[in-house]
Amino acid sequence: MRSEAPAAPTPSAAEIERAVARLKEGGLVAFPTETVYGLGADARNPAAVSRIFAKKDRPRNHPLIVHLAGPSGLGYWAESVPQVAERLIAEYWPGPLTLVLGRRADVPLEVTGGQDTVALRCPAHPVARLLLAGFEQGQPGAGLAAPSANRFGRISPTTAAHVREEFGESVMILDGGPAEVGIESTILDLSRLDSVGPVLLRPGAISLDEIACCLGAAVGHASEHAHGPRVSGGLLAHYAPRARLRLVAAGDLARASADVAVWSYSLPQKQAHPAWLAAPHDPLGYARELYAVLRQFDAARTAEIWLEAPPKGPAWEAIWDRLERAVAGSGQG
Ligand code: TXA
Ligand code: MG
């Protein structure tokens, strides 16, 4: 899918400037990141942040990630930056790693969902970086609160066209081409280091093993720490297509009738089947295509989608996390 895509479009400097102006006025702008597209607003402006929740129909107690131009903005949001955070930032920022830290007292409640922590990330996509740098100019530490640019509970967008499917022309969209990673960032909680150590809240492109290796220490899993912060992606029914989604074994694929859409991991195109696509074999390629394929099948008004179960293992953990949530939430029209 991506290999056939043309070179990523780059918004002009004038377009970036318009987006920055809109954000400074308290408006919303959808922008590309390397994971998925985000719906951004000035994170210091509570009225602007409220517009995100209204636009997405998202419950207001679900906290947002603040996107920064670079690590120098951290001190404006986090109460303190522990050494482990510094180590991870040196290794992975800019990139698909979100860190949850104790917040400064002046971080708006609207951003944190009323919690005493704040999630921070520095995205790597060149368009996001231009936008964030432009937005920070003249207002040091300024950041953009940005959830994935989809209506609550739906599949995250990995292209500008997906964002348009969600919100039509009602939101300004910067088009930076298809997202390279394709699933949301890894979220790591570093706000409870003294009691429980680092805890993975959401698996993503950067794996638990990589983080543990960088820190030289074990990393816990949210499932072991039931009283941790809320994670909306932690709701079981999330990232859901409208069609009923089923994970099936390779041996069952032959039973797929013509009105079932199939994403097969191991079997080549079944000639007679009208909606049969082959999935990439590597986890990076699989993650990059997953949401676009679900959207494509959904758009075709398929009643059922069968995904052949991909392999298990550390490199597939984030993918399995999204697959299981998508199955749980699917089929609700
Ligand atoms: O890759 C990504 O992270 C994308 C792009 C746009 O950056 N953003 C994204 O945002 O996935 P969203 O809102 O769809 O998911 C953010 C997740 C939610 O599960 C939320 O609960 C969690 O981050 N989160 C935000 N602030 C938090 C906090 N203070 N403590 C714990 N979890 C937090
Ligand atoms: Mg989301």
Full CATH superfamily name of the largest domain: DHBP synthase
User: Which residues form runs of ≥5 with pLDDT under 50?
Assistant: none
Integer average pLDDT: 92
CATH topology of the largest domain: DHBP synthase
C-alpha end-to-end distance = 26 Å
Write up this protein:
By secondary structure, the protein is an alpha/beta fold. The protein has 2 domains: 13-224, DHBP synthase (Alpha-Beta Complex), CATH 3.90.870; 244-329, no CATH class. The chain is 28% helix and 16% strand. It has 9 helices and 14 strands. A 10-stranded mixed β-sheet has the order 7-1-2-6-3-5-4-8-9-10, with helices on both faces. It has a 4-stranded parallel β-sheet with strand order 11-14-12-13, covered by helices on one side. It is globular. The protein binds threonylcarbamoyladenylate and magnesium ion. Residues 33, 35-36, 38, 62-65, 98, 100, 112, 115, 117-119, 121, 123, 146-148, 184-185, 187, 201, 229-233 line the site of threonylcarbamoyladenylate.
Topology:
Elements lengths: L12 H12 L4 E3 L6 E5 L3 H11 L8 E3 L15 H10 L4 E6 L6 H4 L4 E5 L4 H11 L7 E2 L14 H8 L4 E2 L12 E4 L9 E4 L5 H8 L4 E2 L22 E5 L11 E5 L11 E3 L4 H17 L4 E5 L8 H13 L4
Parallel strand pairs: 1-7, 3-5, 4-8, 9-10, 11-14, 12-13, 12-14
Antiparallel strand pairs: 1-2, 2-6, 3-6, 4-5, 8-9
Bound molecules: threonylcarbamoyladenylate and magnesium ion.
The site of threonylcarbamoyladenylate has 29 residues, from β4 and β5.
